[in-house]
């Protein structure tokens, strides 16, 4: 098994402290040697049981999770709900210390407790649907906690840190957090896990783990060791193609000229995961920079001028064309038709068709004029777009050619990373490239993503008017005013698809970003040696499929070589 995240950290230096962000072993290999309460598939927005075998909303704002009594730590201690509750309490306490006065430490989670040994009770600020409540409770809040239960309440060090964090006043928290976030405890070689494999040998370029015979799923695992191999160039495709490892966690698919080197049994996993490549506009809300893209119709016009079909010539076997209307839904989901959104977008405005006639109409509506093949702004200036970075993006090359031919000048600016980050945060640009993970319907609308991050770089107005009904850009029923963040919250609380559909429609009619290409973010394994049997939500819908499958009787990973 290839370790996809070496980060230059030797195995002997890795640790399993989820609160320390450097030299971490909490994902590779921590996600294997530690188990988690449940397995959440962001691609399918589905929850599968693991240590927690049952969960229910005891009332609108109380989630109760029942833990199995069959799990133990590798030193023989019983694993209880208290172990996980301790970890979650520490995370919430850290968030509370970091929060501004009057702000919620966490948008949904208020507190957590263990009313008995095998029950965890999570108290919520607001009503939530069951799946959303479980997903939020088991997510990473301040570190890598989502990868497993790392805190053993019988461990003196974790118990001491827990007491300190829970009892400290503000004047003491700085020094406590300094220790908690810098200590490499426990080192990987000393880690006391609770998953199906335990530490056997930590070498310079390989880590070996042996089956933990007391794990509840041990009888269903027909191989005795699980190893991670590290390589200097951090590119898993070559060792995998050479037969040095059986699987790789990422960097698939590969470019066309590499495909012939792959083993005959080459099989992809994690296929529901992808990354989007987008055009990002500076929408101009609450920034002093004068940009033509403060007007939605001008953004739409540029999207219409773009000729998406020309991008097919530069995909290189890795990227896929996003051949749908902008809607903030993963391309893989639209391609498979696995969600109703694939039907909804059929009625949405589809840009990228080199529809110069429609583009001209939109510009003329806003007072732009065309003279001798050149477009002029309402102020009589030549219409010129400043594109910050993206010179290596071939889709931007296509866009610039399209715009220049249409009569809009473009100016390519390349700046260093620090300048790029500063200017996008300050809204000092017209267009720029962006790339983002697209790992699930709901994940793309996370509260810390759209109202927070995307707004901070695209500067869209959080309050928007959208034409109604959904799918009618002419607004035959008038307009509807929405607050993007509140709409997302209502969707989270009610699980009503109408909120999702209206958010997609807002994205399509506001176009703060336009999806151009998407790239599957898959892993791979050699099916000549291995047979995997798992629900799609686990094998293709989670980042950690190769770690999760041995943990549960919901799936199997069998050696057949």
Structure described in brief:
This protein folds into 3 domains: 15-190, Dipeptide-binding Protein, domain 1 (Alpha-Beta Complex); 197-271 and 522-559, 3-Layer(aba) Sandwich (D-Maltodextrin-Binding Protein, domain 2), CATH 3.40.190; 274-353 and 422-519, Roll (Dipeptide-binding Protein, domain 3), CATH 3.10.105.
Describe this structure in words.
By secondary structure, the protein is of the alpha+beta class. It folds into three domains: about 180 residues, Dipeptide-binding Protein, domain 1, CATH 3.90.76.10; about 110 residues, Periplasmic binding protein-like II (D-Maltodextrin-Binding Protein, domain 2, 3-Layer(aba) Sandwich); about 180 residues, Dipeptide-binding Protein, domain 3, CATH 3.10.105. The model has no long low-confidence stretch (mean pLDDT about 95). The strands form nine sheets. The chain has a four-stranded antiparallel β-sheet, with helices on one face. A four-stranded antiparallel β-sheet has the order 13-21-12-18, covered by helices on one side. A three-stranded antiparallel β-sheet has the order 7-8-9, with no helix packed on it. About 25% of the residues lie in helices and about 25% in strands. It starts with about 30 loop residues before the first helix and ends with a strand. The protein has 17 helices and 24 strands. Helix 2 runs parallel beside helix 4. This is Extracellular solute-binding protein family 5. InterPro entries: SBP_5 (IPR039424), SBP_5_dom (IPR000914). GO terms for molecular function: peptide transmembrane transporter activity. Belongs to the bacterial solute-binding protein 5 family. Keywords: Signal, Transport.
């Amino acid at each position: 098994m290839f370790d996809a995240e070496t980060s230059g950290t030797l195995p002997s230096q890795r640790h399993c402290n989820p609160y320390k962000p450097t030299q971490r072993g909490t994902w590779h290999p921590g996600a294997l040697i530690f188990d988690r309460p449940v397995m959440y598939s962001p691609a399918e927005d589905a929850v599968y049981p693991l240590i927690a075998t049952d969960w229910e909303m005891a009332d609108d704002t109380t989630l109760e999770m029942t833990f199995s009594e069959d799990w133990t730590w590798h030193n023989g201690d019983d694993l209880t709900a208290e172990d996980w509750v301790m970890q979650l309490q520490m995370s919430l306490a850290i968030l509370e210390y970091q929060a501004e006065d009057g702000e919620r430490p966490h948008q949904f989670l208020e507190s957590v407790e263990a009313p008995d040994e095998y029950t965890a009770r999570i108290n919520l600020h607001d009503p939530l649907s069951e799946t959303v409540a479980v997903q939020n409770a088991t997510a990473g809040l301040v570190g890598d906690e989502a990868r497993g239960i790392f805190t053993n309440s019988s461990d003196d060090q974790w118990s001491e840190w827990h007491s300190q964090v829970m009892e400290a006043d503000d004047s003491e928290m700085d020094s406590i957090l300094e220790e908690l976030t810098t200590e490499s405890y426990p080192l990987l070689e000393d880690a006391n896990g609770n998953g199906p494999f335990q530490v056997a040998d930590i070498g310079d370029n390989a880590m070996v783990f042996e089956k933990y015979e007391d794990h509840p799923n041990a009888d269903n695992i027909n191989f005795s060791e699980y190893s991670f191999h590290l390589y200097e160039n951090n590119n898993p495709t070559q060792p995998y193609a050479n037969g040095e490892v059986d699987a790789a966690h990422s960097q698939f698919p590969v470019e066309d000229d590499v495909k012939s080197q792959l083993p005959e049994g080459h099989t992809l996993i994690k296929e529901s995961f992808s990354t989007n490549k987008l055009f990002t506009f500076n929408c101009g809300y609450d920034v002093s920079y004068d940009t033509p893209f403060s007007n939605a119709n001008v953004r739409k016009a540029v999207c219409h001028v773009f000729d998406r079909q020309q991008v097919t010539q530069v995909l290189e076997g890795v990227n896929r064309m996003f051949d749908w209307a902008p809607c903030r839904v993963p391309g893989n989901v639209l391609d498979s038709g696995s969600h109703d959104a694939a039907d909804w977008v059929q009625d949405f405005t589809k840009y990228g068709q080199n529809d110069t006639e429609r583009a001209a109409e939109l510009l003329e509506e806003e007072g732009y004029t065309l003279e001798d093949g050149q477009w002029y702004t309402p102020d009589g200036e030549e219409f010129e777009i400043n594109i910050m970075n993206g010179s290596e993006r071939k889709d931007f090359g296509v866009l610039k050619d399209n715009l220049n031919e249409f009569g809009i000048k473009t100016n390519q600016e390349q700046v260093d990373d620090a300048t790029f980050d500063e200017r996008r945060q300050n809204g000092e640009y017209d267009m720029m490239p962006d790339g983002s993970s697209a790992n699930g319907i709901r994940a793309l609308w996370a509260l810390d993503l759209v109202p927070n991050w995307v707004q901070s770089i695209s500067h869209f107005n959080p309050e928007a008017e959208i034409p109604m009904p959904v799918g009618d850009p002419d607004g035959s029923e008038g307009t509807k005013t929405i607050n993007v963040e509140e709409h997302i919250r209502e969707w989270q609380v009610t699980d009503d698809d109408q909120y999702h559909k209206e958010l997609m429609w807002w994205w399509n009619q506001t176009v703060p970003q336009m999806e151009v290409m998407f790239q599957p973010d898959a892993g791979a394994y050699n099916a000549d040696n291995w047979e995997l049997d798992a629900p799609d939500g686990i094998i293709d819908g989670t980042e950690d499929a190769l770690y999760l499958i041995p943990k549960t009787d919901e799936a199997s990973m069998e050696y057949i070589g």
